[in-house]
């Protein structure tokens, strides 16, 4: 890319999908490993980051009308990473349980961050983010924690979330996400102990907790191109500021600095 005043700068990507790529291909190559990590007891996160209108919400959730289509039984063909991830989690949990392995329960917290304020998308109530849990987890205090044991329960939560999500039209995107949206999936694994394997009644197993975070970040934008003003201009400034902080955190992690400015 030619950057005025700097010259040609290279940008390296691990993978680039063309316009013919399917939602299934994107999920398999990009996000499914994060699901496997969570099932194995590790925290994992998938971030959709980029300019407004570049397809982040499309990749995470699906095209316009995706929710109504799923509720009408249209199948997963156009579904994005979020629905596919939860379906895989539930299927794997059922297989593990049927084979006598770990019992896994899944719950979800659905939040958005708008102008530095965290809101539960299940209830519309404000929440507070608390870091440093017993398993290195992040907990949105005040956000409803909804037990998920079927895709229908997930769709119900996502449907309620659409009522509270912040969207706005700009010159760059007629339906721009004006807030960062995060679906936080909490997995509780109860792993069988040797006594359980021997058939001892009432024996307790090891409990392991993990999280899978699926984040649809608001799009960065040049205000002179999006042509926003008033409240929308302040929204854009807040979005760009937050994404700059995220960039600093990721850079510090990549460079293994002693301080990460979380």
Total number of β-strand segments?
12
Query: What structural class do helix, strand and pairing data support?
Result: alpha+beta
Q: Please work out how many helical segments DSSP would assign.
A: 8
Q: For the report, how would you describe the main beta sheet?
A: 8 strands, mixed
Q: What Rg, in angstroms, do the CA atoms define?
A: 20 Å
Oligomeric composition of the shown chains: single chain
- Could you spell the SSE succession in H and E letters? EEHEHHHEEEEEHEEEHEHH
Portion in helices: 25-40%
Rounded to the nearest angstrom, the distance between the terminal CA atoms is: 30 Å
Unreliable sequence segments: 198-203
Topology:
Layout: E1 2-3, E2 7-8, H1 23-39, E3 44-48, H2 56-60, H3 66-71, H4 81-98, E4 103-114, E5 117-120, E6 126-131, E7 138-141, E8 146-148, H5 151-162, E9 167-168, E10 176-177, E11 180-191, H6 194-197, E12 206-216, H7 223-226, H8 231-254
Parallel strand pairs: 3-12
Antiparallel strand pairs: 1-2, 4-5, 4-8, 4-11, 5-6, 6-7, 9-10, 11-12
Helix pairs in contact: 1-4
């Amino acid at each position: 890319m030619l950057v005025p005043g700097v010259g040609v700068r290279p940008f390296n990507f691990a993978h680039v999908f063309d316009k013919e790529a399917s939602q299934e291909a994107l999920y398999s190559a990009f996000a499914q490993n994060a699901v496997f990590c969570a099932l194995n007891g590790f925290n994992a996160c998938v971030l959709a980051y980029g300019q407004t209108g570049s397809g982040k919400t499309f990749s995470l959730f699906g095209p316009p009308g995706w929710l109504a289509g799923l509720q009408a039984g249209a199948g997963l063909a156009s579904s994005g990473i979020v629905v596919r991830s939860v379906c895989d989690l539930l299927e794997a949990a059922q297989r593990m349980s049927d084979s006598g392995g770990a019992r896994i329960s899944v719950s979800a917290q659905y939040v958005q961050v708008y102008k530095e304020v965290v809101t539960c998308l299940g209830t519309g109530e404000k929440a507070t983010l608390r870091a440093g849990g017993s398993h290195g987890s992040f907990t949105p205090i005040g956000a409803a924690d909804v037990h998920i044991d079927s895709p229908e329960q997930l769709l119900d939560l996502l449907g309620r979330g659409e009522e509270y999500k912040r969207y706005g039209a700009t010159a760059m995107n007629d339906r721009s996400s004006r807030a960062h949206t995060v679906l936080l999936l909490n997995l509780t694994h109860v792993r069988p102990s040797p006594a359980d394997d021997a058939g001892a009644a009432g024996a307790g197993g090891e409990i392991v907790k993990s999280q899978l975070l699926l984040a649809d970040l608001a799009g960065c934008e040049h205000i002179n191109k999006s042509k926003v003003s008033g409240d929308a201009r302040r929204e854009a400034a807040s979005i760009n500021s937050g994404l700059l902080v995220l960039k600093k955190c990721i850079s510090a992690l990549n460079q293994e600095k002693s301080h990460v400015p979380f």
